[in-house]
């Protein structure tokens, strides 16, 4: 399908199925979208190559020229407004039985966080504009490590620590993250990676792959550089 804003093409011959896996939401992000001279934003969706145009939802947010708003996600079931005046989106895959109390991060920010436990790998996908991005990941090892799931990739595992690696669009950006070894229990661990770029489909796909026990994540930030 084709998509235009105020007569200017945004997408041409766009194939949703080709851009994303079947039964998976696909998101496209555009900057510098402004009203027409009549004060209105005119969006057009038309079919192409015999296909039909389709739309599930639109977000229209104020922003800076040529920049997108930062992506902030916290592992809980409701959004959060931090005391440094930022909205954090809820994690739609949050599980209530994994919730743990809030953690205090450096500076003035406090984020109520939870253990993010998944069987196997943890996957996060963010749609962005072309450019470079800084990723900040927030981790915490809560409670007794003896309560960690005693399995690693489906095999028995006697290791007392959680160990996992982080990949961005298939490339390793953090290897063998061990929260307990770095900071111990019940203390926040913040790790930052600069210069990340989206893939050809305009997405930053983060995978947290376990080596010992399951991967975990408390919150993430993705800021344009």
Structure overview:
The protein has 225 residues and is mainly beta. It has 2 domains: 2-46, no CATH class; 71-224, Jelly Rolls (Sandwich), CATH 2.60.120. The protein is built from 2 helices and 17 strands. The protein has helices spanning 16-19, 179-183, and strands at 2-5, 8-11, 43-46, 71-74, 80-81, 87-90, 99-104, 110-114, 122-127, 133-140, 151-152, 155-156, 163-168, 171-177, 188-196, 203-212, 219-224. The strands form 5 sheets. Strands 5-6-4-17-10-15 form a 6-stranded mixed sheet. It has a 4-stranded antiparallel sheet with strand order 9-16-13-14, with no helix packed on it. The relative contact order is 0.19. Mean pLDDT is 78; it is low at 94-108, 113-118 and 150-157.
Entry keywords:
about 220 residues, mainly beta, Jelly Rolls, 6-stranded mixed β-sheet, 2 helices, about 5% helix, about 40% strand, elongated
Helix content: under 10%
Give me the count of strands: 17
Total domain units: 2
Which structural class do the helices and strands define? mainly beta
Which strand-content bin applies to the residues?
35-45%
Task: List the helices and strands in order.
Answer: EEHEEEEEEEEEEEEHEEE
Give the SSE layout:
Layout: E1 2-5, E2 8-11, H1 16-19, E3 43-46, E4 71-74, E5 80-81, E6 87-90, E7 99-104, E8 110-114, E9 122-127, E10 133-140, E11 151-152, E12 155-156, E13 163-168, E14 171-177, H2 179-183, E15 188-196, E16 203-212, E17 219-224
Parallel strand pairs: 4-6
Antiparallel strand pairs: 1-2, 1-3, 4-17, 5-6, 7-8, 9-16, 10-15, 10-17, 11-12, 13-14, 13-16
């Amino acid at each position: 399908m084709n998509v235009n804003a105020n007569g200017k093409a945004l997408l041409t011959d766009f194939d949703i199925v080709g851009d994303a896996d079947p039964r998976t939401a696909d998101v496209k992000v555009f900057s510098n979208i402004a009203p027409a001279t009549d004060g209105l934003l005119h969006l057009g969706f038309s079919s192409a190559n015999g296909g039909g145009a389709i739309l599930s939802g639109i977000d229209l947010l104020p922003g800076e020229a040529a920049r997108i708003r930062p992506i902030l996600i916290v592992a809980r079931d409701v959004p959060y407004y931090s005391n440094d005046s930022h909205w954090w989106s809820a994690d739609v895959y949050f599980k209530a039985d994994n919730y743990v109390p809030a953690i205090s991060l450096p500076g003035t920010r406090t984020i109520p966080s939870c253990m993010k436990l998944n069987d196997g790998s943890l996957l996060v996908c963010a749609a962005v504009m072309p450019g470079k991005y800084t990723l900040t990941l927030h981790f915490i090892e809560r409670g007794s490590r003896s309560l960690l799931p005693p399995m690693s990739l489906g095999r028995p595992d006697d290791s007392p620590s959680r160990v996992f690696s982080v990949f961005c669009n298939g490339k390793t950006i953090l290897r063998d993250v061990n929260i307990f070894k770095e900071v111990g229990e019940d203390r926040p661990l913040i790790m930052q990676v600069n210069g990340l770029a989206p893939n050809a489909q305009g997405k930053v796909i983060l995978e947290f792959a376990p080596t010992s026990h399951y991967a975990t994540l408390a919150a993430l930030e993705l800021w344009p550089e």
